[in-house]
Design goal:
The complex is a heterodimer of chains A (328) and B (470). With 328 residues, chain A is mainly α. Chain A is built from eleven helices and no strands. In chain A, helix 4 packs across helix 6. The two termini of chain A are 25 Å apart. Helix content of chain B is 66%, strand content 6%. Classes of the chains: A mainly alpha (328), B mainly alpha (470). The interface between A and B is large, with 112 and 112 residues.
Chain lengths: 328, 470
């Protein structure tokens, strides 16, 4: 129950309201600028040009002005997000389960502290270390390191352009591994809170009826916490989709053409974020930094905004559904 | 109470309802009962270790198939042993043994390099070996633990430990490996003087007087390798971002917890949370537009940043520390707001009512009761936000420079994180000069961020004790 002395607008009320409205205003400004600046891009290239599969900047070797197709980048975004979540979700869930239900002694609390510290490691360090992972893991396992070229060309079932691409340093898989390392310390504490806030009555009721911990976890705790776990997944997904620097480093800035087959996670399918960065930087470097050239980058930002709000909407719908299904 | 419940095997639920009581058996037969599970445990653990080795190295290819063969046989023995001891045919163990044999055959049949499906990849055989070993060894270890602990419901809990622990150990191992790698690459062959001097690379005109000749202009250049300006830039960026985001974040959080029950409150909550959800690229574009669209107006000196080229202050092509801090603050404000709101909401009603009952006004209660109560949350959020601001590159990447004209609020922004980015994507001259130090910069950034994180945890503990009496 809240106690109020008087119903008038106090100074504190006014000041805090004013402060709270500043970020709101900034948000409105950001969205307005994104929309306004991407209009010239649509006018210049047309929606067909923007959603085509050919793209080139000065980073991509052969630079053809006017090729600004974002379709490969959209594919790359979904590929990277999918693979990174497939890696990160089980690990984060296992950490949350271990720290709440399965921890012997103080190990769970230690794991929580370590996760808090790991959450402070900036993305640029994962990006820097992606080179190490590429050298030590990706190249020996995925690129036929040490094989002579004629052996590689005689291997069945690889695309004809492959031999020139080996040994690769950049791929969607590498970027996803590094991104999952980035998001695990963010996802795990949210899931941990969700599992921890499951009412004790439910758990103890299950245990008292003779179920063991594992059955209680599977039948009672996880369904009840499902809504909170979905929050963790959605925040992790937003972070994966929003990250620029790891994908720029481990996957690359710009990639023209769709991967073939479309789910080829060993391709360098650059996602929207790094493509946007590459477009803006590329136009800067090419000296054609009039705003209509780089405005495709703003259009990429607008697309990312739409994807983020779609994810938020789907998450809130999913949470409602999960709560209705499992809790009530 | 809970513990005693778990430890007692409950006959009705236990799959081992026909089990012979272990309690009455002698020590020797107990050993006999546990010998086969112990062997299974050992073999499956060895299989896990071999799996780890084949995952990291290509040269252990001789071991997976023998290990899988031994595991297959041991699982069959355990299947028979379970019947001997408990009179139960544990078909799952037999199926696992079959699966082991199947994986063994598949691994035997696979060539050394696997390609196909038009995928742009040549997979080495050892990756499949390690995955196969993990798939089989984890359930086998679980089954062995289940038998070892007497096939009770509690044993079923213990049997799931390998499944839970395996991904955690794998990923924590990777984290540790990466951090060790960073430290070892960043601290060897480093001349520590680079931490004490800034990076300079510019030339300036000098009037030269030669006796008996007209004075003439020559240029002098200065090249110096160092990281000091990047370190100072990171610290300035953190301080400025905190100064901007702290009042706004705390104010918004207080507003939401105290007055923001209505529609306006939920609008603010949604919008500010969305700031957290949007991509870092969008924030980078925002910083770029702030700097770019200020044009040549009065704001340009503040937002675009200036440098002194020997004669006059000139506008840079990027953006200033102020621009970067304003944009980074948008990233930090939601964190501080959420933390403040959470802290203020967790204030017990008795404390608030007590303060009001003693005659304090609502505002005094706010300053004296609510804010101190929320202080541990605020401090933690600010420090973690600082770490995030210092390590963020995406926001700076369109506007940052190298800081060789000095560090100041209206100078061009730079930071350690941007330096690492620059050593990879900068011009060849800079790359050649500074690339040896990118891991050193990474170590410095890691030290700054980890110490901020440790400080946040410690301060939260201390302040909670002091202001909340817990």
């Amino acid at each position: 129950m809240r106690v109020r002395t008087a119903r008038r607008l106090t100074t504190a009320h006014g000041v805090t309201l004013g402060l709270a409205l500043i970020p709101v205003a900034m948000f409105v400004v950001i969205v307005t600028v994104l929309v306004l600046v991407s209009i010239p891009a649509i006018l210049q290239y047309g929606l067909q040009g923007i959603f085509s599969t050919k793209i080139s900047t000065v980073f991509s070797g052969i630079y053809t002005p006017g090729e600004v197709g974002l379709l490969p980048a959209i594919t790359g975004t979904f590929l990277v997000a999918g693979v990174a979540l497939v890696i990160a979700f089980p690990v984060a869930l296992a950490m949350a389960i271990f720290a709440t239900e399965f921890s012997p002694g103080g190990l769970g609390r230690a794991l929580e502290t370590v996760l808090t510290l790991f959450a402070g490691i900036p993305p640029i360090i994962y990006a820097l270390l992606s080179v190490f992972v590429a050298q030590q893991f990706m190249q020996p396992k995925f690129s036929g390191e040490g094989l002579p070229l004629d052996v590689i060309t005689s291997l069945p079932g690889i695309p004809p352009y492959n031999p020139g691409m080996l040994p690769r340093e950049q791929s969607v898989l590498l970027g996803s591994i590094m991104l999952s390392l980035l998001v695990i310390p963010f996802m795990a504490p949210i899931m941990l809170d969700a599992i921890r806030t499951v009412p004790h009555d439910l758990k103890e009721g299950s245990l008292a009826l003779g179920a063991n911990r594992w059955h209680t976890l599977r039948r009672i705790v996880l369904p009840t916490a499902a809504s909170g776990i979905a929050t963790g997944v959605s925040l992790g997904l937003l972070k994966v989709i929003g990250d620029v620097i790891i994908v720029a480093w481990a996957i690359g800035f710009v990639k023209s053409g769709l991967p073939d087959p479309i789910w080829d996670i060993f391709e360098r399918a650059a996602p929207l974020t790094s493509t946007g960065a590459g477009l803006l930087n590329g136009f800067e470097a090419a000296g054609t930094s009039n705003i209509s050239g780089g405005s495709v980058a703003f259009f990429a930002g607008l697309l990312l905004l739409m994807i983020a709000f779609t994810i938020l909407g789907v998450t809130s719908w999913l949470q409602k559904w999960l709560t209705r299904r499992y809790v009530q | 109470m809970k513990a005693t419940l778990e430890e007692q095997p409950i006959a009705a639920l236990s799959p081992a309802s026909t089990a012979q009581p272990v309690k009455g058996a002698s020590a020797a037969s107990q050993l006999g009962n546990r010998a086969v599970p112990a062997v299974t445990m050992f073999v499956s653990f060895a299989a896990l270790v071999v799996g780890f080795l084949t995952l990291t190295q290509n040269t252990y290819e001789d071991y997976p198939i023998p290990v899988l063969g031994v595991l297959c046989v041991v699982l069959q023995i355990q299947f028979l042993d379970t019947y001997r001891r408990r009179g139960v045919w544990s078909w799952r163990v037999l199926m696992l043994s079959g699966l082991t044999f199947g994986i063994l055959l598949v691994l035997q049949a696979l060539p050394e390099y696997v390609t196909g499906l038009q995928l742009n990849v040549i997979v080495h055989h050892s990756l499949f070996s390690s995955i196969g070993l993990f798939i089989v060894a984890l359930p086998a270890l679980g089954a062995a633990l289940y038998e070892w602990f007497g096939a009770t419901p509690r044993a079923e809990d213990i049997a799931h430990y390998p499944l839970i622990l395996f991904p955690i150990v794998l990923v924590l191992g990777l984290y540790i490996l990466l951090i060790v790698q960073l430290l070892s690459r960043g601290t060897t062959n480093v001349d520590w003087i680079i931490l004490r001097q800034p990076y300079f690379n510019y030339s300036w005109p000098v009037k030269e007087y030669i006796a008996g000749d007209w004075p003439r202009w020559t240029s002098e250049s200065r090249l110096q390798v160092g990281l000091l300006n990047y370190i100072l830039g990171t610290i300035l960026l953190m301080i400025l971002t905190t100064l901007i985001s702290l009042p706004i974040g705390v104010g918004a959080g207080i507003y939401l917890s105290e007055y923001g029950g209505g529609r306006l409150g939920s609008l603010i909550r949604f919008t500010v949370s969305s700031l957290r959800a949007i991509s870092l690229l969008i924030l980078g574009l925002t910083a770029y537009s702030l700097a770019r669209f200020s044009g040549d107006t009065l704001l340009a000196g503040l937002l675009r940043g200036t440098y002194f080229n020997g004669w006059e202050e000139r506008l840079t092509t990027g953006g200033s520390f102020l621009t970067a801090s304003i944009t980074l603050a948008l990233l930090i404000i939601p964190v501080i707001m959420r933390a403040t709101e959470e802290g203020a909401r967790s204030l017990p009603t008795e404390l608030r009512e007590g303060s009001l009952a003693l005659g304090a006004s609502e505002q005094t209660t706010l300053y004296r009761v609510v804010v101190p109560w929320a202080l541990p949350n605020i401090v933690t959020a600010v420090l973690l936000g600082c770490a995030e601001a210092g390590g963020s590159v995406a926001v700076l990447m369109f506007i940052a420079g190298r800081g060789d004209y000095g560090i100041g609020i209206t100078r061009q922004v730079t930071s350690l994180a941007y330096f690492i980015f620059d050593t990879y994507y900068g011009d060849p001259g800079f790359k050649g000069l500074m690339q040896p130090f990118q891991f050193t910069a990474g170590v410095l950034l890691l030290i700054i961020n980890l110490s901020l994180g440790i400080l946040a945890l410690w301060l939260k503990h201390r302040l909670t004790k002091r202001h909340r009496g817990m």
